[in-house]
Every structure is written in C-alpha cells, then in structure tokens.
Write a structure and sequence with these properties.
Layout lengths: L7 E6 L2 H11 L3 E8 L4 E7 L5 E6 L18 E5 L2 H10 L8 E2 L6 E6 L5 E6 L1
Parallel strand pairs: 1-4, 5-8
Antiparallel strand pairs: 2-3, 3-4, 6-7, 7-8
Keywords: Metal-binding
Pfam family, one: Glyoxalase
Protein name: VOC family protein
Length: 128
C-alpha cells in the first residue's frame, strides 16, 4: 500500500450558510459542486484547496457539538500552508477573525498560528 496524497477533509458545520460564506468568501476556496440531499435534509459542498485536495463541508440537522479543546483525543486541527503569515493574519483581521500570537515551530523554525472557523474548529496557518 502507498498513500499518495490527502484527497479531502470532511467538516460538519452547524450553520451551512455561515460556514459556506466563511470557507468560500473569506478563505477563498473554490466551489467544485454543491449538492442538497433531500433524504438527509443535508448539504454537501465540495471545495477546492488545490489540484489534489478538497474540503467536503456537510450540514446535518441536530448535530452534537464538537469537543472544542484542540488537545482532546481525535483529529487535532486542519492546517493551511501560506506564503506570508503576517499578510494572512492582516487579511483575516479585515473579517474580524482573531488569531493567536505567531509561534515558531521548534523543529522546522517555521512560523504558525491558529484561528477558528464559525463552529470553533481549530484551523492553523503555517508559513512555507
């Protein structure tokens, strides 16, 4: 077996319109396809990160809340590679999105910080 790449990351949101606006209008991800599944009363929005990676944004009625602590067992966070972290932080602040202070990865020496999506999912920006 050989894993080649990450195909997609699936996210379940509590407010579809708010999350769609965040990922499309704020983060600038392109819509590949939007599907309403009537039998599930659910949307599935496929968003392009790059030629190989997508986010699948789901809405379901009455979803339980996510454990908000990034140190809880399970998926920790989603990280996006950026070219300039200071410019990215300034851009996010235009949308009133707060970020943590910039930190330096003690192993790679690269800059990174965290912010949250509309459902408090921890997101990271990591300077390449």
């Amino acid at each position: 077996m050989k894993i080649c790449d990450i195909h997609h990351i699936a996210i379940i949101c509590s407010d579809y319109d708010r999350s769609k606006k965040f990922y499309v209008d704020v983060l600038g991800l392109a819509i590949i396809q939007e599907t309403f599944r009537a039998t599930r009363n659910s949307y599935k929005l496929d968003l392009r990160i790059n030629d190989h990676t997508q986010i699948e944004l789901f809405s379901f009625p009455n979803t339980p809340p996510r454990v908000g602590d990034p140190e809880a067992c399970g998926l920790r966070h989603l990280a996006f590679r950026v070219e300039n972290i200071e410019e990215t932080i300034a851009y996010l602040k235009m949308y009133h999105i707060e970020t943590e202070n910039i930190r330096i990865d003690e192993i790679t020496g690269k800059k990174f910080t965290f912010f949250k999506d509309p459902d408090n999912l921890p997101l990271e920006i990591y300077e390449a």
